[in-house]
Write a structure and sequence with these properties.
The chain is an alpha+beta fold. The protein has one domain: ATP-grasp fold, B domain (D-amino Acid Aminotransferase, Chain A, domain 1, 2-Layer Sandwich). It contains 6 helices and 13 strands. The strands form 4 sheets. Strands 4, 5, 6, 7, 8, 9 and 10 form a 7-stranded antiparallel β-sheet that branches. Strands 1-13 form a two-stranded antiparallel sheet. A two-stranded antiparallel ribbon has the order 2-3. The protein starts with 13 loop residues before the first strand and ends with a strand. The model is unreliable at 6-10 and 233-268 (pLDDT under 50).
Length: 268
């Protein structure tokens, strides 16, 4: 709470709420956006919706992780997968790392993150590390970065049509076990991206009303940036699902969504 107002403070991979039926909603988002991405030439692991409302048939994929090479050293661990983040504006962990910047200002950045154990923060990766560790070739890294930017633009336009401003988003990548090519995997549920309402952008794409809906703080050497005008997840999901009402639509969900169906995770 800040000044008596409830605040959704996303970040650090913490579960911050329980939402009944979230897996079902996650599936709707995933199917809708993955189809859009495929139309734009971005490969995904989606094959088709399953027979149940919470099932999606996917291609077998190998996570872009690394085995633990130092088991004799306390605290060593493996890398479980690889994600990218696109950032349209200065918010969240970006501002915590670069607090000289103005929250809400335009940004055009793609970052790589290595996935740790469930509940632990993801690890920010520099481009050279991905290549040195053998997780990606330089060409694969640039292609994945380009696809992430393309995904960010597609999602930005889709939400803009519905009155939302997209702040940032996170997605996971893996290798098609059949072809060895990198493709988008997992899900794009409401807990993997942020949108806001009541935005007002100037001619440079910077938010004019950032002081009205963004608060920052500095406590115990940790910086925080919080947003007030995030839409309720159920409401935003309902708006997005309106596009399905005019056509026959079968619900789906990848089996991998089970890991997030327990609650809303803030992951950016």
């Amino acid at each position: 709470m800040i000044d008596g107002k409830p605040v959704f403070n996303s970040g650090y991979d913490k579960v911050v709420g329980q939402i009944p039926g979230k897996g079902k909603i996650s599936c709707k988002f995933t199917e809708y956006f993955f189809k859009l991405f495929e139309e734009k030439g971005i490969p995904t692991d989606m094959v088709e919706a399953g027979s149940q409302s919470n099932v999606m048939i996917v291609k077998p994929a190998k996570l872009l992780g690394l085995q633990n090479q130092a088991p004799d050293f306390k605290g060593s661990d493996e890398i479980y997968g690889l994600e990218t983040v696109f950032r349209n504006e200065i918010m969240g962990s970006w501002w915590r790392r670069y607090p000289s910047q103005i929250p809400g200002n335009k940004l055009d950045i793609v970052e790589f993150y290595a996935k740790g154990k469930a509940g632990e923060p993801d690890i920010l990766m520099v481009d050279d590390a991905l290549v040195q560790l053998g997780m990606m070739t330089p060409e694969e890294m640039e292609t994945t970065k380009s696809r992430t930017k393309q995904i960010g633009k597609i999602m930005y336009q889709e939400f803009l049509k519905r009155g939302f401003h997209m702040v940032d988003g996170k997605m996971e990548w893996g290798r098609d076990k059949k072809t060895g090519k990198i493709m988008l995997i997992d899900d794009l549920s409401p807990d993997t991206f942020r949108v806001c309402e009541g935005y007002d952008l100037d001619e440079h794409g910077n938010c004019r009303v950032n002081k009205q809906c963004i608060a920052t703080d500095y406590r115990q050497t940790s910086r925080f940036v919080k947003m007030f005008k995030l839409p309720r997840v159920r409401g935003s999901a309902r708006r997005l699902q309106e596009i399905h009402r005019s056509k026959k639509h079968s619900e789906c969900r990848s089996s991998r969504l089970k890991k997030t169906s327990r609650g809303l995770q803030a992951r950016i």
